[in-house]
Amino acid sequence: MVVASVEPVGVERIRAASVPVIDLSWRRERAAKLIVRACEEFGFFKVVNHGVSDDLVSSMETEAMNFFSLPAREKQQAGPPNPLGYGVRNIGFTGDIGDLEYLLLNTNPSFISQKALSICKTNPTKFCDVVNEYASSMRELATEILEMIGEGLGLEDVHGLSKFIRDTENDSLLRFNHYTVIQQDEPYNNHNHNNNNPSSKSTTRNSKIGFGDHSDPQIITVLHSNDVPGLQILASSPDGPALTNGRLMSVRHRAMAISRSSSSRLSMIYFGGPPLHAQICAFPETVTPQAPRRYKSFTWAEFKKAMYSLRLGYNRLDLYRIG
């Protein structure tokens, strides 16, 4: 679920438009066309009738909150992040800071099995089962959406996008972000997450930046959060993904920790990533005389290396721009 705040923050305007809603029970051709339109105009949408059971989502939320409810000393045994694992406030390795704690996992079952021993000592087997089932459901949903995008774009190989995350060596991740409630008497604290973006320096007395302005680098992001508000979709956006030659939008967003809420915010995010060796370049159908190729080709491993060396809000595709 994606919810946009309509309240202006800093110098950037938050999107006031309604969140596009895609019902996967619609006729497939119609749904595919509307998904592509939402990706071109907004870069995000809400999907309903997606087939992921409420019980599974609830179980995953319970496992995540059980972990975040542990004493700090126990949670730290699942860290420090390298970048996988448990982290608090520090995001990445280049100085970005947020008001959150998080758990970042690779979706490979063997990794989850090994990491579970430090995450859920009371019942690591149950934790593994829930995480693996949730990751599998997210991958299936992401695959269906990507194939519908391929159809909507008119790609000769409609599996061109989805094959990256179906590959057994895919580099997909699960991220759990936990934003605690800001106490009313807590002193105002303004973190600078991104020196290149003035809006990242702006908060209000009732909120703090939980996770600063950024766009997700993977092929697709599937996000679920509890009913606590905080996600903000920003009006400005960097260039679109290289695979579609910038045709689709890669939207900038951030998450706020808000004091008006009576409970903490939990986000569960699936990042569909390609194998490290995968070559990333524009599909031929997206390159035309009117829309020439915008980016050099690169491997996902090269892009990840560059990504981890840069600040959160930096537009990494600038490194591969042609001309």
Describe the overall structure.
There is one protein chain. The chain has helices at residues 28-41, 54-68, 72-75, 109-119, 124-153, 162-166, 300-307; strands spanning 21-23, 46-48, 85-91, 96-106, 173-179, 207-214, 220-225, 231-233, 253-258, 265-272, 279-280, 298-299. It has 323 residues and is of the alpha+beta class. The model is unreliable at 1-16 and 187-202 (pLDDT under 50). The chain contains seven helices and twelve strands. Helix 4 crosses helix 5. It has a five-stranded antiparallel sheet with strand order 3-4-5-10-7. The protein has a three-stranded antiparallel sheet with strand order 6-9-8, with no helix packed on it.
Brief summary:
By secondary structure, the chain is an alpha+beta fold. The chain is 27% helix and 20% strand.
